[in-house]
Amino acid sequence: MPIHRIHLSRRRLMAGSAAAAAFAVTGSPAIVRAQAKEVVVGGAASMAPWVNGTFASAFQDKYKCKLTFEGTRSLVNLEKMQKNKDKQYLSVVMMDDPVMILAVQEGLLEKLTPAAIPNLAKTRPEAIDMDGMWANYLQPWQGVAVNAKALPSGVATWAELYDAKYKGRLVLPSLQNTEGLANLVMAAHLETGKPFAQAQFDIDAGFKKIKALKPNILTIYTQIPQAFNLLEQGEAWAIPSAFSSVVLPREKEAPIKMYVPKEGIFVGPAGIALVKGGPAPELAKALINEMLSADMQARLQPETYAFPSNVDAPAPPGIPAGTPVINLDWQFVAKERGEWVKRWDREMAI
Fold this sequence. Notes:
The chain has 350 residues and is an alpha/beta fold. The protein folds into two domains: 9-137 and 270-313, D-Maltodextrin-Binding Protein, domain 2, CATH 3.40.190.10; 140-267 and 329-347, D-Maltodextrin-Binding Protein, domain 2 (3-Layer(aba) Sandwich), CATH 3.40.190. The chain has helices at 18-26, 30-34, 48-63, 74-83, 97-105, 181-192, 196-199, 203-210, 224-233, 244-247, 281-291, 294-304, 330-347, and strands spanning 5-6, 38-43, 66-71, 92-95, 109-110, 128-129, 134-136, 138-147, 170-173, 217-221, 238-243, 256-259, 265-267, 271-275, 306-308, 325-326. Strands 1, 8, 11, 12, 13, 15 and 16 form a seven-stranded mixed sheet that branches. Strands 2, 3, 4, 5, 6, 7 and 14 form a seven-stranded mixed sheet that branches. The chain starts with a strand and ends with a helix.
């Protein structure tokens, strides 16, 4: 049974031509394979081990080129593109969706198409943003992290976290943190009963519901290490909306475990885009195509602990078939988030 996906975005991928589909099967043009060039990619510093390892090894061998990865924060990559607009040296950027929106607004990205990026036709439509200005590749997923000693049976639903048995035992991310948004959207869904596609826009309902969670909150964090120290020590029992990329690597070393609530999992913003005017454009397109391939996403999953965007790639272990997969509309988030953070600070102070 296939994973059930929830489409929260109104963005749609325009259908590719038959030629694009054929291209996806036969591979990239011979001219790209013959190139002996360098492609420079800007991404998060935390990506360096797998980009420079598994991915670079496969890509460099296939295309006989050099891949140089510059690891830093998304906003720093944005600044690099802004400063070098007339002569870009980055060919590809891997950034969070909210920063991608800023790059689009400044005309720094080139639209992706199935003709140029064949694997775009195999990418979940809700993982393609702004009609192809960028695409999500491997997305960290969000469930509920628990202390396995305190909660040996785990957490079955997001709704149960409002139960009085969790009084003073929950740690929540601030709305300043990307992972914090999921709790607010889930609260809106629980309050209204609306599908996530509509609930995410009913933020008043989200705040109304989540304030009822305050008696159960031990603390609200902005720094992840602080939060997970409390969880690992057992002082906290659960962290709702934790990222898989933080929890799963620690499961073998600490008494914590990630759970998939029945309402579904959220997937985080992890975009890849083509820099407008960047060098080696054909090689850059080939790189994006490889990152969106089912084979590469399956190979990288054990290292990234992320959910794939290619419909043919397998879901990560531990996510049952039929689990709803929830994407946020990051354009809406980017527009409204500043006011939400102010409201959060006023209404969720403990």
